[in-house]
Design brief:
Blueprint lengths: L1 H23 L22 E4 L4 E4 L9 E13 L2 E11 L2 E7 L3 H5 E13 L1 E6 L1 E2 L2 E2 L9 H8 L5 E8 L4 H16 L7 E2 L2 E4 L21 H10 L4 E6 L6 H10 L3 E4 L6 H10 L3 E2 L15 H8 L4 E5 L7 H10 L7 E4 L14 E4 L3 E6 L2 E4 L14 H12 L3 H7 L2 H6 L16 E4 L7 E6 L2 E5 L3 H4 L6
Parallel strand pairs: 3-6, 7-10, 10-11, 10-12, 12-13, 13-14, 14-15, 15-16, 16-17
Antiparallel strand pairs: 1-2, 3-4, 4-5, 6-21, 8-9, 18-19, 19-20, 21-22, 22-23
């Protein structure tokens, strides 16, 4: 009996020893052997990511990995989450980002389709306030039905992958027809164009005193019935309504926007501090082109601009063309938004002359406002004074200007034109390069010039520059 007991004991001990040898020979974590990964506990899934830090965490496969049908695009710098990281790749399947990882990781070798470039791979830009480009205005759509296509086809040249056609004040019926036309086009839009993801109505519920380039005869009192009609015409594509909070029924407009998931944005307004603060308390979420066409502070009245800046959660648009704002105002807006920098949203407020090679001549903005381009400025042609009328700014140019004026990090300026507008719109699948987001991307030449080399929408290349070949990294077969 004793011999049999000792025999069973040694057999059990040998089994435990063999088990430990097998387990320890196959580590669960990739951090011990994979360069660029970190050893931390993970649940049994393909990968976990910390975009804030730009690090990748992967499980090691216990069997030889099969080739995947993912498209992997690598660059010498990738804006992974909110951090620029060197020599990373983005794996894409069905238009969605699956993983972001270092090129030294085994996953790079498993990709059947691979592309590698020098430059910065960043999220595609999202312009939430743009009236036109490439010789066409959004308001031209009713008379020239290819206008949205002309604009959408051009925008990828400056790295824009999504945009909000922005309307100007007009008669209610004309706006209804225009919104219906935009919605109809957006539903059948070709994949090769920058995606129309909503509509921004700038007016007609704005102040006559701060109307800017809007026709006075097109301005109207706030009407909830008009909003209901326009929402139906837009087929739920309405995303932003710019309004003046000093107008009657502004509280009702804000409540309507909240119920219908539309952003009420304060703009073209002569409101006092109390009126602006009340609008924000009621639910107004954003300010339209900060400092421009809004009341400014006095010793006893903060005005709209400072009321928006002082609120920790209210987003605000910034036209960063070097003409609309002084450097000090830009620096002030940036400094006051540091506790929540996602409030700072780059826009172009561009008009039809943007993207035109020879800008000589007269252009239109909105409803037949005559505009001339002089020294890079879009100016009203019917005024002896220098009155700005939109801009011809590009998103890469706006990023460069923001960096120059604020001395911010490159990734901060890039995110101001991608993630910040996406967050302002409440989008959870655009504006970042990380798992689960749409593969809308732009390849930029370097940190300083930011020339657009290529643009992808949903993982499909929709624009390539003549400089692309000089940025390609030739891979061994």
């Amino acid at each position: 009996m004793k011999g049999n007991g000792w025999s069973r004991f040694f057999r059990l001990k040998g089994t435990v020893f063999l088990y430990l040898v097998v387990v320890l020979s196959f580590p669960v974590f990739s951090g011990s052997r994979d360069e660029g990964a970190v050893q931390i506990p993970v649940t049994p899934s393909i990968g976990h990511f910390l975009p804030e830090s730009g690090k990748s965490y992967f499980l090691r496969s216990r069997t030889k990995e099969k080739k995947t049908n993912e498209l992997c695009i690598a660059a010498t710098e990738v804006l992974f989450g909110k951090t620029l990281v060197p020599d990373h790749a983005v794996a894409i399947r069905d238009g969605v980002i699956q993983h972001v990882f270092p090129r030294t990781h085994w996953r790079w070798q498993q990709c059947e389709r691979k592309e590698a470039y020098t430059g910065i791979l960043a999220p595609g830009f999202i312009d939430i306030h743009i009236h036109g480009a490439n010789g066409r205005d959004v308001m031209d759509q009713l008379k020239q039905p290819d206008s949205l296509s002309v604009i959408s086809t051009y925008l990828p040249e400056e790295g824009v992958t999504s945009w909000l056609p922005t309307t100007a004040s007009a008669r209610p019926r004309e706006l209804s027809r225009l919104l219906s036309s935009i919605s109809s086009y957006a539903r059948s839009q070709p994949d090769k164009e920058a995606a129309i993801i909503g509509i921004h109505m700038e007016g007609p519920f704005i102040s006559k005193e701060k109307k800017g380039c809007h026709h006075a005869e097109s301005l109207r009192p706030i009407s909830i019935s008009d909003l209901n009609i326009w929402k139906e015409s837009a087929n739920d594509l309405l995303r932003i309504v710019t309004f003046a909070p000093e107008l009657k029924q502004s509280d009702e407009l804000i409540r309507w926007c909240t119920l219908n998931r539309v952003i009420a944005s304060i703009g073209h307004t002569a409101a006092k501090e109390k009126q602006a603060l009340r609008a924000i308390e009621q639910g107004a979420e954003m300010g339209t082109h900060l400092f421009n066409a809004m009341s400014m502070p006095t010793s006893r009245n903060a005005g709209v601009a400072f009321s928006i800046l002082n609120h920790p959660k209210t987003a605000f648009e910034v036209i960063m063309d070097g003409h609309h704002l002084s450097d000090v105002n830009v620096q002030l807006a940036w400094k006051l938004s540091q506790e929540n920098s996602e409030r700072f949203v780059l826009i172009t407020d561009a008009m039809s002359a943007k993207g035109v090679k020879n800008t000589d001549g007269i252009y239109t903005l909105g409803k037949d406002i005559q505009v001339v381009i002089r020294d890079g400025k879009a100016l009203r042609a019917d005024s002896d004074e220098e009155v700005l009328a939109g801009s011809i700014a590009t998103m890469p140019g706006s990023v460069r200007t923001m960096r120059r004026i604020t001395n911010c990090l490159p990734e901060q300026a890039l995110l101001a034109g991608s993630y910040h507008p996406a967050k302002a719109l409440g989008l959870r699948n655009r504006g970042l390069l990380q798992q689960g987001y749409l593969a809308d991307m732009v390849l930029l030449s370097d940190r300083d010039t930011l020339s657009v080399i290529a643009t992808w929408r949903g993982g499909q290349k929709i624009y390539t520059s003549h400089l692309l070949s000089s940025h390609e990294i030739h891979l061994a077969p």
